[in-house]
Write a structure and sequence with these properties.
Oligomer: heterodimer
Shape of chain A: globular
Helix content of chain A: 55-70%
Strand content of chain A: under 5%
Largest sheet of chain A: 2 strands, antiparallel
Strand order of the largest sheet of chain A: 1-4
Low-confidence stretches of chain B: 1-23
GO cellular component, one term (chain A): plasma membrane
Structural class of chain A: mainly alpha
Low-confidence stretches of chain A: none
Order of helices and strands of chain B: HHHHHHHHEEHHHHHHH
Keywords (chain A): Cell membrane, Membrane, Transmembrane, Transmembrane helix
Number of helices of chain B: 15
Order of helices and strands of chain A: HHHHHHEEEHHHHEHHHHHEEHHHH
Main location (chain A): membrane
Subcellular location (chain A): Cell membrane
Protein name (chain A): Branched-chain amino acid transport system permease protein
Number of strands of chain A: 6
Radius of gyration of chain B: 21 Å
Distance between the termini of chain B: 64 Å
Number of helices of chain A: 19
Shape of chain B: globular
Largest interface: A-B, 44 and 44 residues
Number of strands of chain B: 2
């Protein structure tokens, strides 16, 4: 999986040079979308970490994403007391994530007295309160409903204070690498950002996976399966839930932080709003609820769909518009020309199709892509695939 | 000396005077007047909150399903009602006729969405009752996404901007409703009176449905103990379908009511807004409790109007005050009394 992500930009670039370019452009996600897959995937993973493994739906998870994102931007602008303006991004990222972890402890300490629907609602309530506060907090910027922007230099991912080991990220401000290691490969700023963000995401993935597979993670699953029994066995479930929530908030904020570093601007609607949580929820369900890598696949699916349907990097609408003869495009469809229909019903309408797919998943594939795959194979893909392949070879 | 002449004079001046200046003069009469006006507006807003929330609590009370598509249906209701009014009401339609058309639209929209809601229950929700409540939340949320996007596509195809409010139906509101009326010496917006009237009709209708009809009996019994009701030979599944339909219809009725309100108005964003506020009201009142929803809507409405007043007078300069207060009410209520004002403790847990 990681190898796939590693090679993807090169394959994509190579394909664009071949005759299949229009189709590759239409059906394969562009690198800009792949960057979104990285940070939204990490956010969805952090959501799944607490919701999928302990069974408590964290409906206010956007609060942590937003905390990480806003902290990074404010720190870069020197607006956070105690953090001087030039502090390296990696340090502010960790500080922001720690802050989000503490916030999760505060929210969790009252929320985990509740269960089920009530837990979902109280976390949603907290997130909405923070969202409304941030929206009208004049300290953030002169126009807080529009959010804040990084005014200074590009933010770098890497080893702090060592220039050779850090890479500036951002679509316009990032570093581009020419003639990588003398291999004649040029990497654009977006691709460099993609790899830099990818390193952080992979690191976080392994950290979370380590926790899930530790005795602590076992208790989280026990809480999901039967909390009363877990308590009866002697585990202080309240503390376990709280710790899991804090860890999840920490990683959610890291996702927000790398998003802010890449996009260099944050807005309340794109960070703290309920729909950000909803995005994570949808991708988690499609990918596989309660499987750590599932959300990444779900996000990949979501962004792939979005790329195919949007015209930003030559999606299906462009393909249709250019590929179909004009007589077909002007054909009448209930009083609307087909071209207009394509423009409105296909272009940028990914949420519609995603919604339909989501409903179908909830009804028929409740375990998601990865969960169902694991059920079929009888274990994790990495462990079971060789066995199945060997069986077919005989 | 009687105060009556003074009250009359002040009430004449009151609508013209800036509330901040009113407070600055600091007279007791003005204070009481302002308080009464804020209270009246709060009750008006409460009526709106009640109408958008009551369907949600009805569905939850019987079925334990938190319907995330509730807001989307309200949004559709606002547009459908608006469509009827835009088609029928012309420039020279009289006030009475317009209001009659409004009620026809209300009835039509209720009928259509009730049927659609019942169909949705049979097709989508029935197969997953035996799963955990999470999946019902997820499913209805997905449905809400689909409804919202379809609405966007249809509106764009028809040349209407989905995002800012659709002005055409809002312009059909009769002028009578836009003014203020003298009530007990205070100027109250007639729109609020209208909303209170509709809210009261809805409340009485739902109350009668719950207490006077056979289905109401099933619902009240079913929310106590579904299995026992089934054991008594009642087809609970059919009751579920009817209740889900009615709940959906009530959401749309709430939407129609919002159509004329300048604070809301038909727009696709209504979907999320209605949903979040309906959640707040339903949770504060207690999930599944009719009385609770009524009381909570009043509390939220008054909190809303008081905080709006505090902001407009400049006493508090924080623009998000009213939204923050409403969501804080939700959080505080969940902390001190998770089951809500009138809720039953076991409902809604794992």
């Amino acid at each position: 999986m990681i190898v796939g992500f590693l090679l993807y930009p090169l394959v994509y670039e190579a394909l664009l040079a071949t005759p299949a370019a229009p189709f590759a452009e239409a059906f394969l996600p562009a690198i800009t979308f792949m960057v979104v897959v990285l940070y939204m995937g990490l956010f969805a993973m952090s959501f799944d970490f607490v919701s999928g493994y302990t069974g408590y739906l964290s409906f206010g998870h956007a609060a942590f994403f937003g905390t990480g994102a806003y902290f990074v931007v404010l720190a870069a602008n020197g607006q956070v007391p105690g953090v001087p303006g030039g502090t390296p991004f990696m340090i502010t990222l960790l500080l922001g994530a720690t802050l989000a972890g503490l916030l999760a402890l505060v929210i969790g300490s009252v929320s985990f007295r509740l269960t089920g629907v009530y837990f979902a609602m109280i976390t949603l309530g907290f997130a909405q309160v923070i969202y409304e506060l941030i929206r009208s907090w004049g300290y953030v910027s002169t126009n807080p409903t529009e959010g804040a922007t990084v005014s200074g230099d590009a933010l770098a991912i890497g080893v702090p204070y060592v220039d050779a080991l850090s890479l500036d990220v951002g679509r316009l401000t990032g570093e581009s690498v020419e003639n990588l290691l003398g291999l004649g490969i040029d990497l654009s700023a977006t691709v460099v950002s993609y790899y830099a963000l990818g390193v952080v995401v992979v690191g976080c993935y392994f950290a979370m996976q380590r926790i899930i597979h530790s005795p602590f993670g076992r208790v989280m699953i026990a809480i999901r399966e039967n909390e009363e029994r877990a308590r009866a066995v002697g585990y202080p479930t309240y503390r376990f839930k709280l710790a899991a929530f804090a860890i999840s908030g920490f990683f959610g904020a890291i996702a927000g932080g790398i998003f802010a570093a890449y996009s260099r601007s944050v807005a309340p609607d794109g960070t703290f709003y309920f729909l950000v949580t909803a995005d994570a929820l949808i991708t988690t369900i499609v990918g596989g609820f309660g499987t750590l890598a599932g959300p990444i696949y779900g996000t990949l699916f979501n962004q792939g769909l979005e790329d195919v349907l949007s015209t930003e990097s030559g999606g299906i609408a462009t393909l249709l518009r250019e590929g179909l003869p004009p007589s077909v495009l002007e054909a009448d469809l209930f009083g609307v020309s087909l071209e207009l229909f394509v423009n409105t019903a296909v272009d940028g309408r990914a949420p519609l199709y995603l919604g339909i797919i989501f409903v179908l998943f909830v009804l028929f594939v409740p375990n998601g892509i990865l969960g169902t795959l694991r059920d079929r194979l009888g274990g994790t893909v990495g462990k079971r695939l060789p066995y199945h392949l060997r069986r077919y070879r005989r | 000396m009687s105060l009556a002449p003074l009250v009359a004079v002040v009430s004449q001046v009151a609508p013209l005077v800036d509330p901040g200046a009113l407070l600055a003069t600091g007279g007791a009469v003005e204070g009481i007047q302002t308080a009464a006006r804020v209270l009246a507006e709060g009750i008006g807003k409460g009526a709106v909150y009640f109408t958008i929330a009551v369907g949600l609590t009805l569905v939850f009370g019987l079925m334990g399903v938190l319907n995330f598509a509730h807001g989307a249906v309200a949004m559709v209701g606002a547009y459908l009602g608006g469509l009827v009014l835009v088609l029928v009401v012309g420039a020279n339609t009289g006030t009475i006729a317009t209001i009659l058309v409004f009620f026809v639209a209300l009835a039509l929209v209720f009928a259509v969405t009730t049927a659609a809601g019942s169909a949705m229950e049979v097709a989508l929700i029935r197969p997953i009752y035996d799963r955990t409540p999470t999946y019902q939340i997820l499913l209805t949320f997905g449905v809400s996404l689909i409804i919202e996007e379809v609405a966007r596509i249809v509106l764009t195809l028809r040349g209407i901007q989905p995002d800012p409010q659709w002005q055409a139906p809002m312009a059909t509101a009769p002028d009578v409703l836009l003014g203020r009326t003298e009530l007990l010496g205070i100027g109250v917006r007639r729109l609020y009176l209208f909303e209170v009237a509709i809210g009261a009709v809805v409340a009485v209708a739902v109350w009668a449905f719950l207490t006077k009809t056979l289905y109401g009996l099933y619902i009240r019994a079913g929310s106590e103990d579904t299995e026992m009701v089934q054991a008594l030979g009642i087809d609970v599944r059919q009751a579920f379908t009817v209740v889900f339909g009615v709940g959906t219809g009530l959401a749309a009725v709430g939407g129609v009511l919002l159509m004329w309100d300048p604070i809301w108005g038909p727009s696709v964003l209504l979907s999320i807004d209605v949903l979040l506020y309906a959640f707040v009201v339903v949770i504060i009142g207690g999930l599944g409790s009719f009385t609770g929803t009524l009381v909570a809507a009043g509390i939220v409405g008054i909190a809303d109007s008081v905080t709006t007043w505090l902001f407009t007078t400049g006493i508090v300069t924080f623009p998000g005050l009213s939204e923050v207060t409403i969501f804080l009410l939700l959080v505080v209520m969940l902390i001190i009394r998770p089951q809500g004002l009138y809720g039953v403790e076991e409902v809604g847990g794992h």
